[in-house]
Design brief:
Helix content: 25-40%
Strand order of the largest sheet: 3-5-4-6-7
Order of helices and strands: EEHHEHHEEHHHHHHEEHHHHEEEHEEEHE
Largest sheet: 5 strands, antiparallel
Structural class: alpha+beta
Number of strands: 14
Shape: globular
Oligomer: single chain
């Protein structure tokens, strides 16, 4: 590949082309999915700009697939010692981030939360004074952590005619609050309980400039378009931010002619770099942080996955691409074992099937009692996707 053009002088017509396979390897390298890292879970979480955590424990297998020697107890301890926290951030979804990133990201990603309020909540809360509601919320949280229902009850005392289920959602949208452990602790779990971010971390918020956030995004997910960054963050109108960065960035022309931005020194391995089998949890950011997911997930498979799982489900990567949907069935009783089901889109080679089975057993072992002796079942190709017809290739 020739040297990329600086963003300040490149256009989609003259930037160095980059192939889909090269995009795949570049993204996997930054996500630590080509080779596990020995860095701390805090360092990796920060490098990835967090892990999606709307399902409270998905970050555990997400980090396990990226960090050599990761133990589930390590993340539980990090939540307890407050070096990482869970709160509403990008795309109005809960993310696991480091304490520093929580303090830096929460303010800049407020616009998507405002959109959620306007599009979903406001019509159910006519006449409410958001300033007064915020003051009442802060007053309640100053007394100590509160469940959403408790905060909803406090607001309902002021607006008794408004639906409590919508009042209870206001604090997470308009206040910087974190979800406290034991929610998110592997094998324990618990109800949502909120505390104020700055009080939980005993530090003030220090909002990151948007330019820093874009650099961080590209370091974790690039090369990427402006629309990709908007997809990941939930923010809009980011083109001026990319323009401000100017010659700090380099440009490529993507497979569809799109203009892709990147950091000059970010890893971009050759397309033939080996990519081992890796397992991803549902809603992994790898699958949802670009408008065009085909660098890791073929479009026909994306449609089948969403239709079958109603989300971006847990999956297995083979040669860097999603090759199967996976599902772990937890043991129902102490005497039971878990089951790790693998539903390939197309017939796997013996080597790929063996690698998936090995990786799945290792993950089950890391998950601990009840999982460690679980069975791995690889189903016939296409059997887990009703109505999915494998395309002729």
């Amino acid at each position: 590949m020739s040297p990329p053009r600086a963003a300040g002088s490149a256009a989609a017509t003259d930037a160095e082309p980059i192939t889909l396979a090269e995009l795949n390897r570049a993204t996997l390298a930054r996500q630590h999915l080509l080779e596990r890292t020995t860095d701390s879970l805090q360092a990796v979480t920060e490098r990835l700009v967090g892990l999606q955590s709307q399902e409270p424990t998905t970050a555990y297998p997400g980090l396990w697939s990226r960090v050599e020697g990761f133990a589930f107890a390590d993340l539980a301890a990090a939540l307890e010692d407050r070096s990482v926290v869970r709160l509403l951030l990008m795309r109005s979804t809960v993310h696991l981030v480091t304490a520093r990133d929580a303090l830096g990201l929460r303010g800049p990603v407020q616009p998507p939360l405002d959109r959620e309020y306007r599009s979903v909540r406001s019509k159910h809360l006519p006449g409410i004074d958001l300033v007064e509601a915020g003051a009442l919320t802060l007053e309640a949280l100053a007394e100590g952590p509160k469940k959403p229902k408790e905060l909803g009850d406090r607001l309902a005392a002021r607006w008794p005619d408004l639906p409590r289920e919508h009042l209870a959602q206001l604090p997470r949208l308009h206040q910087s609050v974190v979800q406290l452990p034991p929610r998110g602790i592997w094998g324990v779990g618990g109800a949502v309980v909120y505390a104020l971010l700055d009080e939980w971390l005993d530090a003030p918020e220090q909002p990151y400039p948007l330019e820093e956030i874009i650099r961080r995004y590209l370091a974790a997910f690039g090369p990427a378009t402006v629309k990709d960054a908007q997809q990941w963050s939930g923010l809009t109108r980011l083109k001026p931010v990319f323009d401000t960065l100017g010659d700090e960035l380099v440009c490529f022309t993507g497979p569809g002619g799109e203009l892709l931005y990147d950091l000059p020194d970010a890893p971009r391995p050759p397309a033939d770099t080996p990519a081992p089998v890796r397992l991803l949890p549902e809603w992994d950011n790898l699958l949802i942080s670009h408008v065009d997911r085909t660098r890791v997930l073929a479009e026909d498979r994306r449609q089948a996955m969403v239709a079958t799982t109603n989300c971006y489900g847990a999956s297995a990567l083979v040669d860097g691409m999603v090759a199967a949907h996976t599902k772990i069935s937890a043991p129902r009783k102490k005497a039971d074992h878990a089951t790790f089901d693998v539903f390939p889109y197309e017939k796997l080679t013996k080597a790929s099937a063996s690698a998936i089975e090995t990786e799945a057993h290792a993950l089950l072992t890391a998950m601990g009692d009840g999982y460690a002796e679980g069975d791995v079942v690889i189903h016939p190709a296409g059997s887990g996707f009703p109505g999915y017809e494998r395309p002729k290739r």
